[in-house]
């Protein structure tokens, strides 16, 4: 289990699995957010925040919503544009204590151009 929270603690998440790897993406949003994504099924993530305490940002093809704390601005996770549909999502592992993700492999994803991992899986 890995837990994370934004800087002010208003948005918290718990990942109930240990991911095989974390993903660093270079797309226009992720490189600005400096996110380190841990992907999971929505059923494997518990979220804790007030609905009016976050900003949902839909960009590009509007299929993903990046969620950021309204108070401190940290991007904590992304989910499908319709979170009620469940499915795949990701939490920003940079919101966890460094010791909680220490030793997990980091893969680099080219979200800017090729949409492929730049390293071998």
Topology of helices and strands:
Layout: E1 2-5, E2 12-15, E3 22-25, H1 30-33, E4 37-41, E5 45-48, E6 54-58, E7 64-69, E8 75-80, E9 88-92, H2 98-101, E10 106-109
Can you tell me about this structure?
- Helix content is 7%, strand content 39%.
- The chain is mainly β and 121 residues long.
- Strands 4-9-8-7-6 form a 5-stranded antiparallel beta sheet, with no helix packed on it. A 3-stranded antiparallel beta sheet has the order 1-2-5, with no helix packed on it.
- A hairpin with a 5-residue loop joins strand 6 and strand 7.
- The protein is globular, with a radius of gyration of 14 Å.
- The two termini are 23 Å apart.
- The relative contact order is 0.27.
TL;DR?
The chain is mainly beta and 121 residues long. It is built from two helices and ten strands, in the order βββαββββββαβ. It is 7% helix and 39% strand.
Instruction: Please estimate the helix content.
Output: under 10%
User: What global shape is seen?
Assistant: globular
For the biggest β-sheet, the strand order reads 4-9-8-7-6
Beta-strand content bin:
35-45%
Pick out the low-confidence regions.
none
Secondary structural class: mainly beta
Strand count: 10
Distance between the termini: 23 Å
How do the helices and strands follow one another from N- to C-terminus?
Answer: EEEHEEEEEEHE
Instruction: From the alpha carbons, calculate the radius of gyration and give it in angstroms.
Output: 14 Å
Q: What's the overall average pLDDT, rounded?
A: 93
- Alpha plus pi helix count: 2
Largest sheet: 5 strands, antiparallel
